Each structure stands twice: as C-alpha cells, then as structure tokens.
C-alpha cells in the first residue's frame, strides 16, 4: 500500500505536469487523457488523487494563494515604509508570474475558460484580497504620516493592481516572451514619483 508521502508526491507530480502543460500548450484545452499520458499513469489513477479536473486546478490555485498571501504577510512584517511595501507586493506578483508561466495562465483566467465557475471565482477573490491589502497599505500612510495621496486609496490600489494584471496579461498573450519584470524598476520609479506628488 502506498504511503502518504508517495500519495503526496504523486499529487504533486500531477499538479506539476498540469502546470507544465499549461506552459507548453497555450491555447489548448487540457484533457484528463492528455494529463494522464503526461504523468505516465491511467486516467483512473489521476482520479484516485483528484476527484475531478476542477480539483486539480484548485490544487494549483491553493499553491498560488499560499505562495502570494504568505509572502505579502512577510513583506508587511519586514517593511514599514508605504511605498516600499507597494513596490514589494507588485514585484512579488510579477516575479511569481515570470517564474511560473503555466500557473500564470490560471492567474489571468486564460486557462480557466470553459472550466468550473468556482475556479474563476477563487482567482477573483485572490485579486480582491491583494487589492484590499494594497488599499490598507496606502491608507496607513495617512494614519502614520498625516498625509495621504491626491487620489483616494481605493482608486490607487485598483490602479496599482491593474498595472500588475496588465503586465501579467501581456506575458500570457506574448506566449511568455514579454517578461512581466522587464523595465519594472524604471516604471515603478515613475509611478512612485506620481503618487508622492502633493
């Protein structure tokens, strides 16, 4: 009988194969038959680890959420400066996308077309959490320094997240040629100088 470690590693192997196929087969629908062939197991074996393809996608979404939200919490614990926090959160998103091209197709919804609605809902909720976190970071500047921004924090948080989402979409649309982090530091310096104008 397989140990729980073997079971876990097979689950991880399936998720890694799914992420790899999302990266190498942009625009193609991934079937369980193709995924089983990629992993080197039967479709029945896939279903022993995941009851449905939606659950496989959920496994990758769990990875996305854990990776991003835990690191955002680390940024907030380590950094106190508002603009540094915003920079690091945006950079985290862009670097994560660049290092995980296949998973980025889930992040921008491209890989979820035709899949279960709850998967798109989970990604939408994740972006809502990131936007709320940015809004809170921006709001704390006013509380800490007694001075806010020209635009309200809700609009600014939306603008910053839209920038990151745009770079992520360009990355997917270019079939991973246009790196999300390209020119980020220069663009950030411009955004930062605009935000800090009184």
Number of domains: 1
CATH class wording: Mainly Alpha
Assign the structural class, choosing from mainly alpha, mainly beta, alpha/beta, alpha+beta, or little secondary structure: mainly alpha
Overall helicity = over 70%
Q: At the fourth CATH level, what is the homologous superfamily?
A: Tetracycline Repressor, domain 2
Number of strands: 0
Q: Largest sheet, if any?
A: none
> What proportion of the residues form beta strands (DSSP E)?
under 5%
CA-CA gap between termini: 67 Å
| CATH architecture identity | Orthogonal Bundle
Low-confidence stretches: none
Rg of Cα set: 19 Å
> Element order, helices and strands?
HHHHHHHHH
General shape? elongated
What does this structure look like?
- With 198 residues, this protein is mostly helical.
- It has a single domain (54-197), classed as Tetracycline Repressor, domain 2, CATH 1.10.357.
- 75% of the residues lie in helices and 0% in strands.
- The chain is built from nine helices and no strands.
- The chain is elongated, with a radius of gyration of 19 Å.
- The model has no long low-confidence stretch (mean pLDDT 92).
Chart the SSEs and their pairings.
Layout lengths: L3 H21 L7 H8 L3 H7 L3 H26 L3 H18 L1 H7 L9 H29 L7 H21 L10 H12 L3
Helix pairs in contact: 1-2, 1-4, 1-6, 4-5, 4-7, 5-6, 5-7, 5-8, 7-8
Q: What descriptive keywords fit this protein?
A:
198 residues, mainly alpha, Tetracycline Repressor, domain 2, 0% strand, NO_SlmA, cell cycle
């Amino acid at each position: 009988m397989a140990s729980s470690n073997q079971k876990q590693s097979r689950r991880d192997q399936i998720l890694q194969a799914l992420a790899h196929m999302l990266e190498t087969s942009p625009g193609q629908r991934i079937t369980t038959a193709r995924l089983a062939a990629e992993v080197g197991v039967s479709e029945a074996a896939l279903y022993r680890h995941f009851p449905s393809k939606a659950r496989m996608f959920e496994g990758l979404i769990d990875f996305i959420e854990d990776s991003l939200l835990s690191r955002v919490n680390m940024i907030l614990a380590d950094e106190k400066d508002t603009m540094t926090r915003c920079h690091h959160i945006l950079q985290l998103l862009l670097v994560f996308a660049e290092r995980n091209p296949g998973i980025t197709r889930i992040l921008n919804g491209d890989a979820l077309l035709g899949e279960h609605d709850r998967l798109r809902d989970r990604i939408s909720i994740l972006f809502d959490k990131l936007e709320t976190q940015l809004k809170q970071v921006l709001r704390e500047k006013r509380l800490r320094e007694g001075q806010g921004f020209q635009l309200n924090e809700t609009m600014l948080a939306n603008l910053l997240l839209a920038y990151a989402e745009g770079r992520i979409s360009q990355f997917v649309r270019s079939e991973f040629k246009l790196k999300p982090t390209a020119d980020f530091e220069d663009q950030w310096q411009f955004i930062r100088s605009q935000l800090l104008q009184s």
